[in-house]
Design goal:
Strand content: 25-35%
Family: Belongs to the glucose-1-phosphate thymidylyltransferase family.
Organism: marine sediment metagenome
Enzyme class: transferase
CATH topology: Spore Coat Polysaccharide Biosynthesis Protein SpsA, Chain A
Structural class: alpha/beta
Order of helices and strands: HEHEHHEEHEEEEHHEEH
CATH class: Alpha Beta
Strand order of the largest sheet: 3-8-5-9
Oligomer: single chain
EC number: 2.7.7.24
Number of strands: 10
Protein name: glucose-1-phosphate thymidylyltransferase
CATH architecture: Alpha-Beta Complex
């Protein structure tokens, strides 16, 4: 499944890619993907020793960013959209990508007012919006410095929602709507849909 997010980045014009993996899967990724040369990309690898959250994985990858803008995509997310124009238009701050869904309580949810985000809530029991925050994000180097100010959540993770809310509070967060389909295999329903999508793709 990791090939889909890699292909999304490649189609968007990104050729330098860092894979952040837990210690139990790093060898498998390296064996499967190697340097990425045969795909026309340059793959690097680093280890997140413990599952301490997406924002922690981003912190682990800080040195790879090397003071450049970064695109972050989660390994269990599948997108139809081509994000090349979104990346070209990105100038500074942070950008998240929203998708209207039927089950927002399973995701981080962006609350909108007058087409502006006023708050992002992680997996709300009673969602005030159907706009889920997908697993694709753009950040400039200054945003990565905010990682040092994050506090661990109740589930002992550095939450990407907290980072995005910090960007929102500082007036540097914008968003775009995902127009094509989006699948998150991190949920039971999403895993089923992703498996169905992959089977159909292989049949074509």
């Amino acid at each position: 499944m990791v090939m889909y997010p890699i292909e999304t980045l490649k189609l968007a014009g990104i050729e330098e890619i860092l894979i952040v993996s837990g210690p139990g899967h790093a060898g498998q990724f390296l064996e499967l993907l190697s340097s990425g040369w045969d795909m026309g990309i340059n793959l690097k690898y680093t280890i997140q020793d413990k599952p301490l959250g997406i924002a922690h994985a981003l912190w682990v990858a800080k040195n790879f960013a090397d003071n450049d803008d970064v695109a972050v995509i989660l390994g269990d997310n599948i997108f139809e959209d081509n994000f090349s124009e979104s990346i070209k238009s990105f100038k500074s701050g942070a950008r998240i990508f929203l998708k209207e869904v039927d089950n927002p309580q399973e995701f981080g949810v962006a609350i909108l007012k007058d087409n502006k985000i006023v708050r992002i809530v992680e997996k709300p029991k009673e969602p005030r919006s159907n706009y889920a925050v997908t697993g694709f994000y753009l950040y400039d180097p200054n945003v990565l410095e905010y990682l040092n100010s994050l506090q661990y959540s109740e589930r002992n993770e550095l939450e990407i929602t907290d980072l995005n809310n910090m960007c929102l509070e500082n007036g540097i967060l914008d968003y775009q709507i995902v127009k094509g389909f989006w699948l998150d295999a991190g949920t039971v329903e999403g895993l089923y849909n992703a498996s169905t999508f992959i089977r159909k793709t292989k049949m074509k």
